Amino acid sequence: MPPPPPKIIRVVDLETTGPAPPAHGVCEIGWQDVALGADGRWELHGEGGARLVNPGRAMPPITQAIHHILDEQVADAPLWHDVARAALDPYPRRIALAAHRADFEQVFCTPALTRSAEWICTWKCAMRLWPDAPSFSNQVLRYWRKPEGIEHERGLPAHRAFPDAYVTAFTLRDMLNDVGFEQLLDWSRVPGLIPRVRYGPDRGKDWREIEEEVLIGFLGDRDIDIRYTAETELARRRGGGPVGRETRQGSLL
C-alpha cells in the first residue's frame, strides 16, 4: 500500500487592487505548503507557486506602488474564480489554510472557494508566542527571528505573492513545531491579543501598566483587536484569569 499523503497546510498570500471586494479584486496569488513529516516535525513542502490574476478593473497607483504589478501584465490572466479553487483547495487536500493577517485573505478567499477551510493567522499567533518582537509584520519577523533554512533571495521581492507566502511559511513552520496545530487554530479563531498599547499617552506600554480608566476607554475602540485586548486585560484584573498560553517569552497577561 502506498503511504498516505502528508498532512499539509497551504500558506497563501494575495496581492489586490484594494482591501474590499467587489470594489477591489485579486491580481496575484502565491502559495507555499508546510507538511507534517514522518518524524513528527513540520517542514516546507514542495516548490510553491504563484499566478497572476485579472482583477477585472484598472490597478490603482497607490496599490501598484506596493506590489508593482502592471495592468498589461494581468490583462490576459485568468479571472479570480478561474484560479481560486485550484490554488486554495489542492490535492492532496490541505488540512487548513494560513496567511499573515489572514482576515485580509479571507475577504477574498470565501468559504465557497475554500470549502470552508480553517485558517491560521500567523500575525495573531506571533503576538501570542513572541510578544517582545519589535513589530509583527511579515518582514520584521523574518529578520528578527532569522528562521533556519530560509533562502534570502527566494523571499524577495517583498509584497509579491509567492515571496511573501514563502516567508510566512517559515514563521508557520516554527510555530507548528513549538505549540502545535490545534493551539494555532484556537488563537486564530479570536481577535488578536496586542502586546503593547498602540497609540495615545501610554503608547508602547504593556497593557498591565495603564490605569483602569484608560483601559476602559479602549473598550469602545473601532479596532476589534484593541477591544479584545482591553476586554481580556480587564477580565484579568477582575479575576477572569489569563487567556491563552504562557510562552517562554512571557505573555501579555
Automatic annotation (TrEMBL):
GO MF, one annotated term: exonuclease activity
Keyword Calcium attributed: no
Domain Exonuclease, first and last residues per copy: 8-181
Keyword Hydrolase found: yes
Keyword annotations from UniProtKB, A to Z: Exonuclease, Hydrolase, Nuclease
InterPro entries: Ribonucl_H, RNaseH-like_sf, RNaseH_sf
Record's protein name: Exonuclease domain-containing protein
Native source species: Sphingomonas immobilis
Species lineage: Bacteria, Pseudomonadati, Pseudomonadota, Alphaproteobacteria, Sphingomonadales
